[in-house]
UniProtKB/TrEMBL annotation:
Taxonomic source organism: Luteibacter jiangsuensis
UniProt-annotated catalytic positions: 9 (proton acceptor), 131 (proton donor)
Lineage, top ranks: Bacteria, Pseudomonadati, Pseudomonadota, Gammaproteobacteria, Lysobacterales
Single GO MF annotation: isomerase activity
Name of the gene encoding the protein in the UniProt record: hisA
Keyword Amino-acid biosynthesis: yes
Protein name: 1-(5-phosphoribosyl)-5-[(5-phosphoribosylamino)methylideneamino] imidazole-4-carboxamide isomerase
Length: 250
């Protein structure tokens, strides 16, 4: 079953979107984060995906008060990340009311440590964010706010996590992120064959209801919706209706 998940990216306390992960190509939206989260809840959202873009670069979760405010409303289950580099970061987010902690850079650099978090807190509390870019015939893994590349490739790392019992994977094709150019359906097909037991959340490029249907038919567990919702390409309620129809046909 595919679930649409609205996303809020935070920078300096504001709702923003980057173009292909480039901090110099930012669009700032005139929404207050907690009010936007409440609107998504009103429109039927069950989950909200939150990224601390400041923390993704600094390694310190810098928008924690905003995330805690959204989580404390109790209207949405929140998965949040950006800046989680150690177990203290995991605990701070869980204590703030986050249901799932999203780990990216540390998941790429230190799979042994992240596997221990999965064992300690449970596979339902950790989301691996293995965002990727296709370079020289391989799915490479940029980290630290997508500013540096790790040695392992996606194909090398993901089976290690599947063997460790990881359940949730969020994967963004960085070259589609914020572009509204369509998602990379082939990437998610590849992930389905590479790690069939994992629940994959697709992110990057979604521009239309047809894109949501295509990802649902591919078997993705979630579809992250960012710029398309912020710019009014379609409504969240329509996204749920399309996903439900596609789920029924699978």
């Amino acid at each position: 079953m595919t679930l649409p998940i609205p996303a809020i990216d935070l920078r300096d306390g504001k709702v923003v979107r980057l173009y292909k992960g480039d901090y110099a190509r930012q669009t700032t939206f005139a929404f207050e984060p907690e009010a936007l989260a409440a609107r998504y809840a009103d429109e039927g959202a069950e989950w909200l995906h939150v990224v601390d873009l400041d923390g993704a670069r600094s390694g310190r979760f810098e928008n924690l008060a905003t995330v805690a405010g959204i989580a404390s409303s109790g209207r949405l289950r929140v998965q949040a990340g950006g800046g989680v580099r150690n177990e203290d970061g995991v605990l701070r987010l869980l204590e703030a009311g986050v249901h799932r902690v999203v780990v990216g850079s540390v998941a790429m650099r230190d799979p042994k440590t992240v596997a221990s978090w999965i064992a300690r807190y449970g596979a339902e509390r950790i989301v691996l964010a293995l965002d990727t870019r296709f370079l020289d015939g391989e799915w490479r893994l940029p980290s630290a706010g997508w500013t540096a590349y790790e040695a392992r490739t996606l194909d090398e790392l993901l089976p290690l996590y599947e063997a460790a019992g990881a359940r949730h994977l969020l994967c963004t094709d960085i070259d589609r992120d914020g572009t509204m150019s369509g998602p990379n359906v082939a990437l998610y097909r590849h992930l389905g064959s590479l790690a069939p037991s994992m629940a994959v959340q697709a992110s990057g490029g979604v521009r239309s209801l047809d894109d949501i249907a295509a990802l649902a038919l591919q078997g993705t567990a979630g579809v992250i919706l960012g710029r398309a919702l912020l710019e009014g390409a379609f409504s969240l309620s329509d996204a749920f209706a399309v996903a439900e129809k596609a789920n029924a046909s699978c």
